[in-house]
Design a protein that fits this description.
single chain, 288 residues, alpha/beta, Rossmann fold, 2 domains, six-stranded parallel sheet, three-stranded parallel sheet, 10 helices, binds the ligand Nc1nc2c(c(=O)[nH]1)N[C@@H](CN(C=O)c1ccc(C(=O)N[C@@H](CCC(=O)O)C(=O)O)cc1)CN2, THF_DH/CycHdrlase_CS, amino-acid biosynthesis, EC 1.5.1.5, hydrolase, THF_DH/CycHdrlase
């Protein structure tokens, strides 16, 4: 079997084109241009690339974005003050704090400070709670990106065993919530596993759909994958200056039915979904 390669770059570009049309319609109806305020603290080179790509994607979709760069010595109090300003600024619809933050800043306190109505990353406990209850206000960007890739690739999820490898707040847990809930590209039977799971290989081998989000390069090998499984690789790891996923692509592609590459798989969808959430935030603001 040779896996169908899921082209995330292409699907993300198509999604962004559709969004651009929705943004134009929304602007015609309301006069409002969705505005994303992105905050970058410190000098992490990968983060600088991601926020630049987010800015470009906003511009292409007809949205406004403002990037607020803060030095790595910025205190937590200063960052919280900036977030408070954006919370109160009605011209800002979405607020994004690029992660990771420098070690002296407590991430959770910062993410909790973003008003839930502008929380386009869907990190705020109120939005995570709504998601868990199956009535999301925003969709978590990377997990939603995986779901859209499955949908666009015609992969049936309902009744399938989806195994999510990784339990992070940003991908693993919300991914499981999206796949298990009622609705399209959902209704899966979901298992979350992680580095402390006993007999991990036996668990991942049960997956009809395996989502790898463990943050370890080439962690998923052929023996961990059931032949014919769909493999979605969320990992973005730099190894010797090269970007690799959490899945050993060369080993796994020959036995999977579909697989996402890294780069060019799930990553580009994260930004497309962020734009979608920013439009949702602007719609929420327009309703008042
Ligand atoms: N506030 C947030 N911080 C972080 C998030 C997030 O969703 N919100 N996710 C990651 C980084 N990230 C977006 O911020 C992100 C990572 C990777 C890509 C992407 O398109 N990757 C490309 C390769 C790009 C490259 O060459 O480096 C790919 O996989 O093809 C987009 C967004 C952590 N922080």
């Amino acid at each position: 079997m040779t896996a169908q390669i899921i082209d995330g770059k292409k699907i993300a570009a198509e999604t962004r084109e559709l969004l651009a049309k929705e943004v134009a319609l929304f602007h015609n109806e309301t006069g409002i241009t969705p505005h994303l305020a992105a905050i970058l603290v410190g000098e992490d080179p990968a983060s600088a690339v991601y926020v630049r790509n987010k800015e470009r994607a906003c511009a292409k979709a007809g949205m406004k974005s403002t990037l607020h760069k803060l030095p790595s010595e910025t205190t937590e109090a200063e960052l919280l003050e900036m977030i408070e300003q954006f919370n109160d600024d009605s011209s800002v619809h979405g607020i994004l704090v690029q992660l990771p933050l420098p070690g002296h800043i407590e991430e959770q306190r910062v993410l909790d400070a973003v008003t839930p109505l502008k929380d386009v990353d869907c990190f705020h406990p109120e939005n995570v709670g709504l998601l868990a209850q199956g009535r999301p206000r925003f969709q978590p960007c990377t997990p939603r990106g995986v779901q859209v890739l499955l949908e666009k690739s015609g992969i049936d999820v309902s009744g399938k065993h989806a195994v999510v490898l990784g339990r992070s707040e940003i991908v693993g847990k919300p991914m499981a919530m999206l796949l298990v809930q009622k609705g399209p590209v959902a209704n899966a039977t979901v298992t979350i596993c992680h580095s402390r799971t006993a007999n991990l290989k036996e668990v991942t081998r049960q997956a009809d759909i395996l989502v790898a989000a463990i943050g370890k390069p080439n962690f998923v090998t052929a023996e961990m994958v059931k032949p014919g499984a769909v493999v979605m690789d969320v990992g973005i790891n730099s190894v010797d200056g090269k970007l690799v996923g959490d899945v050993d692509f060369d080993q796994v592609a020959p036995i999977a039915s579909s697989i996402t590459p890294v780069p060019g798989g799930v990553g580009p969808m994260t930004i497309a979904m962020l734009l979608d959430n920013t439009l949702t935030a602007a719609r929420i603001a327009a309703k008042g």
